[in-house]
Amino acid sequence: MDLGLKGRVAIVAAASKGLGLAVAQEFAREGADVAICSRNSAELEKAGAAIEKASGRAPHWKALDVTRYDDVREFVAEVSKRFGRVDICVTNAGGPPSKKFLETSNEEWRTAVEMNLMSAVYFAREVLPKMRERRWGRLITITSMTVKQPVDGLILSNSVRAAVAGLARTLANEFGADGITVNNVCPGYTQTGRLESLADKQAAETGLSREKIFERMSAQIPVGRIGRPEEFAALVAFLASERASYINGTTTAVDGGWVKSLL
Fold it and tell me: Are 96 and 115 in contact (CB under 8 A)?
């Protein structure tokens, strides 16, 4: 299937590893010009090499802090200048720590809001006017299955990521007539460093091994296993494509069936 991504320009945030890296690799394999960012220059350099090896296309990359509006603004301007436009933007940020409500400080709440909600606001503020001028665009937010079904012990993710889903749905209404679609994609249990950290925390709390925790996670999933980053990236690439031009305002879980809700 030709997704029509060849020659498109895609920004992917938090793309030095995990889901963000998988998405950037998928875009590059489809022929898009990719720009990636994260905080760590060394990890970004490795990610850039991995993307080029997998696709033959070297990405543009820059280390920055997505909680700083000026950093985001400058990065989007830099990408626009280099490639002439921005067609696709995937907002993404590291997940907040696993904690219960009374264990969570006010500062941790502020940090989670800045990292997960405000970073998406900053990217949207910068890319949507540019997309509107060209009458074409794709804004895709990456959140978590917790926006559909909260997970015990993830009070910050359950709360703040739901706000991102609300943002995406509202932007879909506001910009749909401009040829721009806005969709939210929710990963479930996927083989990333984030999941390993959550498993290690649960292992420490229960006295079980990491492997046993993974077994418990897998047992909750109808397909019976943890997901792979490339499986998640495949949906993001489709939503960014010409084929998905009538898909707008959705929140879709890529979770092997873990979420039990009807919608």
Answer: yes
Q: What 3 state SS string does 223-255 have? A: CCCCECHHHHHHHHHHHCCHHHCCCCCCEEEEC
Each residue of 105-118: b (16+ CB within 10 Å) or e?
Answer: eeeeeebbbbbbbb
- Label residue 262 by pLDDT band (50, 70, 90): confident
- HSE of 56, CA atoms in CB hemisphere, 13 A: 3
Give dist(CA 15, CA 24) in Å, integer: 7
Q: Where are the alpha helices (DSSP H) in the chain?
A: 18-29, 41-55, 69-83, 106-112, 119-134, 155-175, 193-206, 210-219, 229-239
Please tell me the predicted confidence (pLDDT) of residue 237: 98
Q: Residue 92: name the closest of 71, 66, 130 by CA.
A: 66
Lookup: tokens for 147: 């926006």
Radius of gyration, alpha carbons of the chain: 18
Residue 13 CA: distances (Å) to CA of 45, 84, 106, 140, 217: 14, 19, 26, 11, 27
Domains and CATH numbers, the chain: 9-189+228-254 (3.40.50.720)
According to the model, what pLDDT value does residue 124 have? 98
Query: Kind of pairing, strands 9-13 and 180-187?
Result: unpaired
The pLDDT of residue 198 is above 90 = no
Q: What is the pLDDT of residues 234-243, one digit of tens each?
A: 999 999 999 9
- How many Cα neighbours within 13 Å face the side chain of 148? 21
Q: What percent of the chain stands above pLDDT 90?
A: 91
